[in-house]
Specification:
The complex is a heterodimer. Chain A is an all-alpha fold. Chain A has one domain: MetI-like fold (Orthogonal Bundle). Chain A contains 13 helices and 2 strands; from the N terminus they run αββαααααααααααα. A two-stranded antiparallel sheet of chain A has the order 1-2. In chain A, strand 1 and strand 2 form a beta hairpin. By secondary structure, chain B is mostly helical. Chain B has a domain of 180 residues: MetI-like (MetI-like fold, Orthogonal Bundle). Chain B is globular, with a radius of gyration of 23 Å. Classes of the chains: A mainly alpha, B mainly alpha.
Amino acid sequence: MNGSGFNWLGFWNLVFSALVQRIGVLGRELRQRRGRLVVAGIPMLWLGLFFLLPFLIVARISLTTIDPNAQPPYSSIVTFTQGWQLELHFNLDNYRRLWQDGLYLSAYLNSLKTAAISTLLCLMIGFPMALGIARASTRWRLPLLTMVIVPFWTSFLIRIYAWIGLLKDQGPLNNLLLWLGVIDEPLHILYTNTAVYIGIVYSYLPFMVLPLTATLLKHDRSLLEAAFDLGCKPMRAFWRVTFPLALPGVIAGSLLVFIPAVGEFVIPDLLGGPDSLMIGRVLWTEFFQSRDWPLASAVAMAILLLIVIPTLLFEHLQARRGAQEARR
Amino acid sequence: MRQRSTFVFTMMAFGYAFLYLPIFSVVLYSFNASRLVTVWGGFSTRWYGALFHNETILQATGRSLLVAAMAATLAVAIGTLAAVAFTRFQRLRARPLLSLMTSAPLVMPEVMLGLSALLLFVGLQQWIGWPAGRGLMTITIAHTTFCCAYVTVIVQSRLAQMDESLEEAALDLGARPWKVFFLVTLPVIFPALAAGWLLAFTLSLDDLVVASFVSGPSSTTLPMLIYSKVKFGVTPEINALATLIVLVVTSLIVAATLVMGRRNANPLR
């Protein structure tokens, strides 16, 4: 200030304001980071604690032995001998039993078969319905779609229970067929695999119709018209034009039906017979009737490895392919 | 062309008949005077009277509604946060983990969700003494966990469609991120939150399997009660209850459709 020519006041002012600005930026960043931490952290914490952690526990318990006297009924893995020596007891018998006892393998295969057949049946009924809805006039489209959704919002258990009444040996369906003279004696449908198929198709049909309708609505009608103009027969036009274009909807709908159907418990339990073994029902029985928690956990781990992880991988690849196609 | 239309029409008629046959039969038999489900004994409303005097059913219904409301609200809160983290934080390092945790419950069989949740609660009780015993709270937690995933999917797709420049404008004008979320983002995505809440509410209200695993001695929910009644002999009150559920749901959906239909003629655009 006294003639040296250097403006100290200005210098400090500059330094100070730069510092304040820097702290401000830092603070804002920190605040932003903290905000982000809270936003992403809460769901991560909840799902980590209540969804991911449980599977580690299931994996641990699948390696224990059933102990009916203990509470909860399984032996512990870690024991301390002589007060301080740690001993680990891993028991692989549960997994060995899954593999060697034919029951579990056939239940697994039967689940896949039942889900696959049901998905195909859903597609066969759902595709014409979706086509009809997509081609209906705008006036009718919304009511028709709503009518597909309404059953989904009403109690699932009660709708399955209604089928018990309908499919009984002395039920309305048999009475109608007898009266029409189609059959001479009542059909045994209830408590068979047929009833399980009916139940699954009935419950999951909306999941097939909705994505199919959404895809079919996006179609350009002029493509079909072009096919007809070029002399294509309707059947051929369907298989060469409509169906390939609807393929994304077909895949989406099939996944939405197949995935819940594989692990289904309620439908085979209420409509199926003793031979309608499905993997979800096996797990339930091991847990609630045999009270064999370790074996039930081993079944759960098997489902995770053989059904859930392949499905997740398939969906992941499907999504990536979709993203690639969108980029092109 | 004509031929195919007939085919499509027939299949549609068959499909809708298939979807509605069981519902009509339940409604019909709820007015049956006879105790036997298979025999028609004349028109009567006695089962509705019996329903409103059946304390067990009424209590279970109350419990189920309470759990569903709590689980749906919690699931909307947590699921929305997850959806925001997904769509707005591009450099989130935990993205793959979050993505796994929100998509896996959608493909997980219910028996596994139930079993794993129960084993967690049993383990937690052994280690830290919480939760002490199982009941409505454990059911709510388990339901919230799997409902979150559905809410995240719905809200995420709405957030992705939303015009982000609205948020940027608010930020440029000096609004804090939280303020932007509550004043700009939330009103835009509100329909998705409402849809997610309704879906979560229905899923929770309808759930038998998960609730059976994690419920305690005095926390029988409505689906558990219906299941045991179906399994070990039915009482016709269930038909009356089902008819009431159908009535409520149908009127709600028709009302929603009318409101939405007036606002937007084509919902699938």
